Amino acid sequence: MFFNQKLVHGRLIKRYKRFLTDVKLDDGAEVVAHCTNSGSMKSCIEEGAEVFLSPVNDPKRKTRFTWEMILINGGWVGIHTGRPNQLAVEAVRNDEIPGLTGYTRVVPEKKIHDSRLDVMAQNDEETCFIEVKNVTLKEGRYALFPDAVTTRGRKHLETLIRLKGEGYRAVMLYIIQRMDVEVFAPATEIDPGYSETLKKAVNAGVEVFPVQAEVSPEGIVLRDVLPFEI
Question: Could you tell me which InterPro entries the record lists for this protein (predicted)?
Fold first, then answer.
């Protein structure tokens, strides 16, 4: 996916109240940007680091910008949690992820049972439900999820387990918005409950696709499916 407008460059002053970020633009102005990421953002917060923001032309919005990415260790890390869902829908429609191809109908935000999953993909042979998560946490060569305890994430896994038992294809798709990692794994020390539920899901037949994404001010491009350790 490519950004449909030019992003605005600046440097991070601070993030606060989870959803707000102060940024100093290149012209010296200081602005408040919306941060979509509700997690801890561990390993992708560095005050003074370069960032890019997307302008928002919505008079109802209190903030005029949305924080898109930050430069960490010489590479861009995508922190906008809405982008992975857009990438997933686009990629499944265009057969861009090996193993998730051949679907003729792709529906975002599908409500099923007591959950709302990010993607439903169908063809004449099967219906596949896909839940998408944004991954930014890095520890050594590992990309880890989650970066904070997530009861909602566990609920989504339990829904996928249930759907698999009902005969559907069930997929957990992790979009890793950084290129400086090699393997995906659950962040057991941060959320052991999520880790255990993910193991349960894999044993039940839920498929795991950790897909690395290359982030730049021009856009976000999916690259390789990484190996994972559960």
Answer: SfsA (IPR005224), SfsA_C (IPR040452), SfsA_N (IPR041465)
Contacts of 49 (CB under 8 A, 6+ apart): 11, 12, 70, 71, 72
pTM (2 d.p.): 0.95
Domain encompassing residue 51:
8-75
The beta-strand segments (E) located in 113-168 are 115-122, 127-135, 137-139, 142-145
The answer to whether 96 touches 224, Cβ cutoff 8 Å, is no
Condensed to tens digits (0 to 9), the pLDDT of residues 93-121 reads: 999 999 999 999 999 999 998 889 999 99
pLDDT digits (tens, 9 = 90+) for 42-57: 999 999 999 999 999 8
Q: Are residues 36 and 111 in the same domain?
A: no
Q: Angle 175-77-1 (CA atoms, 0-180°, nearest 5)? A: 55
> In the structure encoding, which two tokens stand for residue 86, read together?
């857009």
- The CATH number for 113's domain is 3.40.1350.60
CA dist., res. 53 & res. 51, Å (int): 7
